[in-house]
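To illustrate the input format used throughout this study, we show a single complete record. The first block contains the structure-token representation of the backbone; no residue identities are included at this stage. The design step must infer an amino acid for every position from geometry alone.
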């Protein structure tokens, strides 16, 4: 009966191949559970783009003998349109794999984070067999898989990664390990308990879970091709072939499970295959030093709510991973991806949605709302006024990465309400402009695909929408919106600020001077502006107008009176400000009327400046054939002005180019400048040599912050020219280069 059953399974495999041409969305007759397949796609979360150029993973194989049935299909979730899903298994006796492409490998030498959504079907106790995430350097690349059984199939219990326990006479662990994917480490998501043991267990390919028999569905990890991963058992029963343990020994194998995760309930069958999408995050920490061969992988399961996307605590394990076992040639890289299987008796609809690939690029996104009328950014909770000109922008910035291109960026935008949009476009860092038709909107939603790839040459893209705030009659709150985007390497969210639209403003204040200033410590600056009182208010209002000033959150005691023409001036001294950035807020009042508030940012960092002569000389002197030092000639005046305030420090350094004759011979002077102090002499050569370090004092603050470097030089100190005994007479010229540094060591 056992042999007959296996031949029936082989027939089912041939049927599956014959029906494989139908679309995945249509759930053909070979699908184990069409209703579950349909539900999975209708609830699929958003994932990376996998079916276009610059995709980083592939289901395609270069070897025609590869048995993988994985394919990329589109999800049908209206909340995540065009979600890209990898359909792994959906029939009996299937194998599937999806691997990273060449150039998109996992970097074992750097911290990495990757995340995915996984779906294991809803078969519960009838589920099989599961999936595995793997890192490998198998020489077969994307065609790597375990040894096939006698029927040409990938054994189900091995999940497409572990060894193939198909030979009952196999007694050596080393030989068994050779049947697994080589140079591989994996985390299994096992949905079927392979716990057959004792008599008749050999050659059943159903015993890898005997060491964790109470955990029917579980997560665990180990090395696929390491002999110590497996444990050998002897079969004590009779076999249909007539062989007995007395004349022919039979063997089967269990597998050691590291970093085990389950729900803690004995015999539980819905830990994984519960009909819901499940989130997993992998965090890699490389070895601490070059000679250490162990990194650490943390895998966190159920760390996001599948319905809301909110973060959850989840369950996690951290395991040590010997890099030498997955990267024996020390390339620093590994192929990464997923495998999955079903068996002849159990099958499930299994899917993978890649949310974030390992850190292949360093890409940043920001969302900003600007009030072009008021010339300021609108932050959460800020106010704008009816008919103000607004600009909503979504920025993408490629900063660096192993992957050359951040590509296939598709955004699904939910625009802010209560803005009458009149223009939309994408601007790129190379000056290219991509027009967007506002007619493509559906309500407040619009999808924008970035036509340009982002990389080191074209690093930025900004999707901009401009329009005017609605002409509201009453104060209106505009809610924040959250949009989504996907790309070839990651997905993300774009969140706008909430804000308030005021219908009108009787009193309006506008800053007319620069709103971003830099101010030396001992100087002052003036903020200028204009205050407007609308016609209706001015007819019934005769109270004076005042401008109130707040510096870094502290309200100043004396307001500034507004002139009759509506202008005002606020003069600020540097001693009113702190070092670094200062936020100055100005707001106008008149009786009970209050204007909008405007901000000016003043950076009070001072400056550090060197004054050095462009042409100096050393004295002329007759050579004696002995070593000599030439004194300074005229023009040696160096000074440093430090307006950053008392306590700031600086360092002055100098280097010298080679001195040569001013003639066609181009001879070099045998000698060099030297800098003399009371403690000794420093030769000045081709590398920068620090000669003075100083901390600015309060006394210098009163003297315009100037320190005269050459004021301290005398006939024994300062710069001299040292001449060697073999120097030749002539006119020489050279170059001194000075460097002023604000961070002395």
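Output of the design step:
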């Amino acid at each position: 009966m056992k042999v007959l059953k296996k031949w029936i399974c082989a027939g089912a495999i041939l049927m599956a191949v014959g029906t494989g041409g139908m679309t995945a969305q249509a759930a053909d007759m070979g699908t184990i559970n069409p209703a579950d397949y349909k539900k999975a796609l209708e609830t699929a979360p958003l994932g990376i783009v996998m079916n276009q150029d610059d995709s980083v993973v592939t289901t395609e194989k270069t070897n025609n003998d590869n048995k993988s049935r994985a394919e990329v299909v589109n999800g049908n979730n209206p909340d995540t349109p065009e979600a890209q899903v990898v359909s792994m298994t959906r029939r009996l006796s299937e194998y599937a794999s999806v691997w990273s492409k060449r150039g998109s490998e996992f970097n074992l030498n750097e911290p990495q984070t990757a995340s995915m959504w996984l779906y294991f079907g809803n078969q519960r106790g009838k589920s099989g067999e599961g999936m595995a995430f793997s890192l490998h350097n198998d020489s077969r690349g994307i065609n790597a898989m375990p040894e096939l059984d006698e029927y040409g199939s990938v054994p189900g219990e091995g999940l497409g990664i572990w060894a193939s326990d198909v030979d009952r006479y196999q007694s050596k662990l080393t030989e068994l390990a050779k049947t697994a994917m080589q140079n591989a480490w994996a985390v299994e998501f096992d949905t079927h308990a392979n716990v057959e043991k004792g008599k008749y267990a050999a050659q059943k390919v159903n015993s890898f879970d005997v060491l964790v028999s109470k955990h029917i569905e579980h997560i665990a990890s180990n090395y696929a091709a390491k002999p110590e991963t497996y444990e050998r058992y002897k079969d004590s029963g009779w076999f249909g072939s007539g062989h007995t343990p007395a004349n022919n020994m039979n063997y089967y194998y269990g597998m050691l499970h590291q970093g085990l995760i389950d729900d803690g309930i004995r015999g539980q069958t819905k830990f994984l295959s519960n009909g819901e999408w499940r989130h997993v995050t992998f965090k890699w920490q490389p070895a601490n030093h070059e000679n250490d061969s162990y990194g650490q992988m943390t895998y966190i399961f159920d760390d996001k709510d599948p319905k809301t996307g909110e973060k959850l605590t989840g369950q996690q394990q951290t395991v040590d991973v010997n890099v030498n076992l997955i990267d024996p040639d020390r390339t620093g890289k590994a192929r990464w991806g997923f495998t999955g299987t079903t068996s002849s008796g159990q099958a499930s609809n299994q899917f993978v949605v890649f949310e974030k690939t390992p850190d292949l690029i360093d890409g940043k996104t920001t969302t900003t709302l600007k009030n072009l009328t008021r010339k300021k950014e609108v932050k959460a909770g800020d106010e704008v006024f009816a008919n103000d000109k607004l600009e909503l922008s979504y920025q993408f910035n490629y900063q660096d990465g192993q992957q050359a291109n951040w590509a296939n960026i598709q955004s699904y935008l939910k625009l802010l309400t209560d803005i009458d949009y009149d223009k939309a476009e994408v601007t790129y860092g190379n000056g290219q402009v991509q027009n967007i038709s506002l007619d493509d909107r559906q309500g407040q939603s619009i999808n924008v695909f970035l036509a340009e790839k982002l990389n080191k040459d074209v690093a930025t893209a900004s999707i901009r929408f401009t329009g005017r705030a609605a002409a509201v009659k009453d104060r209106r709150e505009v809610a924040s919106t959250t949009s989504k985007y996907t790309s070839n390497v990651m997905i993300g969210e774009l969140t706008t600020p909430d804000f308030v639209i005021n219908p009108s403003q009787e009193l309006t204040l506008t800053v007319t001077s620069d709103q971003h200033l830099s101010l030396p410590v001992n100087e002052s600056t003036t903020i200028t502006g204009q205050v407007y009182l609308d016609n209706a208010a001015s007819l019934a209002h005769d109270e004076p107008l005042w401008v109130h000033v707040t510096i870094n959150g502290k309200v100043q005691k004396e307001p500034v009176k507004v002139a009759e023409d509506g202008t005002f001036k606020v003069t600020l001294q540097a001693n009113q400000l702190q070092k670094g950035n200062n936020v100055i807020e100005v707001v106008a009042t008149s009786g009970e009327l209050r204007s909008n508030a405007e901000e000016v940012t003043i950076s009070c960092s001072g400056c550090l400046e060197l004054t050095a002569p462009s042409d100096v000389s050393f004295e002329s002197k007759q050579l004696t054939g002995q070593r000599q030092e030439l004194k300074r000639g005229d023009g040696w005046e160096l000074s440093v002005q430090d307006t950053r305030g008392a306590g700031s420090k600086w360092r002055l350094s100098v280097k010298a180019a080679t001195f040569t004759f001013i003639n066609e011979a181009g001879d070099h002077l045998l000698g060099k400048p030297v800098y003399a102090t009371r403690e000794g002499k420093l030769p000045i050569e081709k590398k920068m040599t620090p000669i003075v370090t100083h901390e600015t004092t309060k006394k210098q603050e009163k003297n315009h912050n100037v320190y005269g470097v050459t004021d301290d030089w005398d006939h024994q100190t300062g710069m001299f020219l040292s001449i060697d005994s073999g120097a030749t007479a002539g006119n020489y010229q050279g170059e001194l280069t000075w460097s002023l540094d604000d961070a002395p060591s």
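Structural context for interpreting the output: The first helix runs from residue 2 to 18. Helices lie at 2-18, 34-42, 173-177, 323-326, 535-539, 698-702.
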